[in-house]
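User: Run a structure prediction on this.
Assistant: Running it now.
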Amino acid sequence: MSISPISSSMMSMYVPSAGAANKTEQNDYEYQLILQELAAMGIASSGDKETDKLKLETAKTVMEMMQSQSASSSRQSIPFEDVMNTLNLTVTGDLEKDYETTIDKLDYEIDLASSDEEKEYFEALKDQVETEYNSSKRDSISFSGASQLASVNKYLLLGIY
């Protein structure tokens, strides 16, 4: 089998296109970034780019879910939300602010009450809001103490302390 002069000269002139060379460099660069992000998260590399890419995407998704859960849990549950809805008040999630807004609105309604029955109704709502507010304040104090103790226990178990 012989090689023709035309094909042999064409073979020596073959140079990979710049696009193909850049793509290889980008893939290597991309993998280096993946490895850096995995290391920053404390996740060991598998040595396979696709597996590591999947690990990174999964870890990011889990972190986003945890952040969104912590953001939603930072918004306090308002125990007297039903009363606020009855009074057409907007719940902000800030217990103190919602309490003050609700009490102000109830005081206003008590002052404007046209009958004794209406006045008693709004006073009963005010008593309910105050009771639920005070109860939730007590619960949040004991809950925050329990969560702090849980955090300390976690660090002790992990040997961080």
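The CA atoms of residues 110 and 122 lie 6 Å apart.
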